[in-house]
Each structure stands twice: as C-alpha cells, then as structure tokens.
Fold this protein.
Amino acid sequence: MKDFTYYAPTEVIFGPDTESRVGELVKKWGGTRVLLVYGGGSCIRSGLYDRVASSLGEAGIPFTALGGVVPNPRLSLVRDGIRTAHDEGIDFVLAVGGGSVIDSAKAIAAGVEYDGDVWDFFLRKTAPMKALPVGAVLTIPAAGSEMSDGCVITREDECGDEKKSFSTNICRPRFAVMNPELTYTLPAYQTSCGVVDIMMHTLERYFTRGGDMYLTDALADALLRTVMTCGEKVLKAPEDYSLRASIMWGSSLAHNDLTGLRGQGDWAVHGLEHEASGLFDVAHGAGLAAIWGAWANYVVEEAPERFARLAVNLFDIPAVMSTREETLATARAGIEAMRDYFRSIGMPVNLTELIGRRPTEEEIDHMAAMATKNGTATLGSLRKLGLEDVKHIYNAAV
Ligand code: NZQ
Ligand code: ZN
C-alpha cells in the first residue's frame, strides 16, 4: 500500500429526525448567526425548512435565509451570499440541500473571508486560507459534498457558462445531518443521478495505476455492489428506509476518500462531464452515465485487468483472463454491462439521450477546448487525454 494522509473531519449525525439537532450542532461548532442556504423549494414543500428553522430558534440562533440555489449552482448567487453574510455579520453557513446547495455554502464561506473575488479560487489564482464554518443537512445523496473537500460552481457567461471547481480541507462541513427519510421525496430521475454519481466517485478512484490495493478494492467492490442493488430496488420502493439509508451513507463514503487512499485517481470522466453540464445545464449524474462508456472503451487497453476485475466482481461475468485478448473481451463485456445497468435505472448512455438531440460539432469542439484549456492541459491519469482524445470520446459518446 502506498503512503497516505487520510482526513475526514466531518461529524456525521445519521438517522430519522436528526434535523431537529441542527441548532445544537451549530452552537457546538461556534455559530451565533447563520446564513441558511437552500435550493428551489423542495425543503420548504417537505416541511424540512420549518423544522430546521425551529431547531435554530430553540437554540437561540438567529438566521438569514438565502434560497434559490439551482442545480449546477451559479456564481451570481454565491456573490449575493457573500454580500449578505458581510451585511448581516454571519459567522456560520448552513446548507440545507444537495451538492449544489452545499457547494454554494462552501464558496460563500470561503468568499466571506477573502478580500478579492471568490472566482479567483476556481481559477486557481489563490487558495482559500480561511473560511466560515459550514454545516449541512443533506437531502439528496449524490455529490458527496457533505464530507468532501470539493466545491463546484458555474459562472454565467454569454459565450457559454463555465463550470469550475476548487478543493480545500478548510471548507469541509463541520457536521453533516443525514436523515434518509428526507430523501423519500426525491424524483426517480434524481435518485438515479445520485446513484451514478456515487458509483463514479468510487470508479474514478478505482481506475488508477500503481500499488497494491486489496482493502481499498474490497471497499470499492462492496460500495459499488450495494449502491447499485439498492439503487435498482429503491425505484420501486422509494420509501424503503434501509435502501435509502445505504445509498445515503454510500454517497459520503464514496467521496470522503475511503476508497481512494491509493492516490489521485483518474477523474477524466468528471472533467469531461463538467463541460457537458456547464454547457447544457444537465444533471451531473446523468452526464456521467452518458460519457462513461465512451471513455471506458477509449482507455480500456491501458488497464484491461482492472476493467475485467470489475466485470467479474460487479456483473458476475465469467473470469476468462488467460490471455490479454481474453482479458480485453471480459473487460469490454463489463463495460457493456455497466451501460445496461445505467439504462435499467433510467439513465442516458450517450449525449444524444442526455440532451434530447444530437450535440453539434461546434458544441463538441467547445467542450473539448474547455476541458483541455485549448489543448494545453490533459485529463485523466490511466491515459492522459489531450484535445484530440477528448474530441474522440465526446464523438463516441454521441
Ligand atoms: O433545489 P431543490 O428544490 O431542493 O431541488 C433539488 C434539485 O432540483 C432536488 N432535490 C434535492 N433534494 C430533494 C430534491 N427534490 C425532492 N426531494 C428532496 N429531498 O434535486 C435536484 C438536484 O439537486 P443538486 O443539489 O443539484 O444535486 P446533487 O447533489 O447531485 O449536486 C450536483 C452538483 O454537485 C456537483 C455537481 O457538479 C453539481 O453541480 N458536485 C460536487 C462535488 C463536490 N462538492 O465534492 C463532487 C461531484 O462530483 C459533483 O461535481
Ligand atoms: Zn461527481
């Protein structure tokens, strides 16, 4: 096993009615005046917003609400949040929602403590040195932002929106409240998008080179199998607590580096997808499902044994791997089985299905240029993908 540092400081409070403890938790982590960030209203319709407000009230903590975060969250709202936080003397940012809301909260928390423009972090001009503490009440298991160091925001632009990220330990939520019952109201499509994103966070770490990785591989296998099985079943039983609970915990474990101790991972599929969701404003998980197969077929020859291992462990495909050709055939059967799985949970397996029409050549060129910084940067580690590779993958994903 390679050397590593593992850091997952988020306090997890898991179970029914845990949202009633939010006030106590904010207090424990030093908050005295809260910015409560939420999305388009699902938490109001479900009554969660009122329960969180009561909990803060009972703890004697005043709050200012900032709603309206949209999926693929926008920089303009982050800037609004930073202004409000300054004006109101906010010292704690509470996210009630999914990855989009939590990422907005993280960006606000870091932006408040920075003299320049918050977009500087996303342009990697500088890294956040300080941030207000963030807490999360998770309502959709998917992005894993409740325990991750990541933050992904979209900057609106007339010439095409730009989706970028930064990573920093100082924005990791201090606590994450996870009540699986809060996810009963999720539409089937969002549930499946979440399942795919959880799988991808595991797979991006799985496809990497080097070192023995027995334990992390075993954890990845278990996580993938469990989330895939529960994901299929929950579409027929949306109010099954155990299924929702396994998916919810899977969301955090897939992205808190538990299955990724062995290094940086590949992350090309995420890089390719962020351009698609930036341009077409589609759900991140659906975008990943649409691109993964084309990426996998393009890079499979770099690590046929890893793909074949996955085929055997996830899809019970016979372990025929005596020669390289046999291993490749097993690997390719696994890639097809993965696509079948995505179809079975209602996910697109190409860009045309994703956006409801064939993407144009210009759109593909635009995404490829953005993903590779006009050909000056590469994506991925299994195989380093330059501009032409990326174009090839997008075209194969049409
Ligand atoms: O806005 P509301 O009304 O709440 O509706 C949301 C939204 O429309 C809805 N929803 C959430 N909880 C619900 C619910 N509807 C009914 N009942 C509930 N309990 O679901 C929709 C999607 O929400 P969103 O937060 O956008 O989903 P997700 O958690 O998948 O987050 C996606 C964002 O996270 C980023 C993605 O790029 C994307 O911008 N990511 C963040 C990462 C990180 N910070 O570490 C890593 C990921 O790879 C990802 O890139
Ligand atoms: Zn993701």
The mean pLDDT is 96. Residues 39-43, 71-73, 97-101, 103, 139-140, 142-145, 148, 150-152, 182-183, 185-186, 190, 193-194, 197, 255, 270, 284-285 surround 5,6-dihydroxy-NADP (ligand 1) (CB under 6 Å).
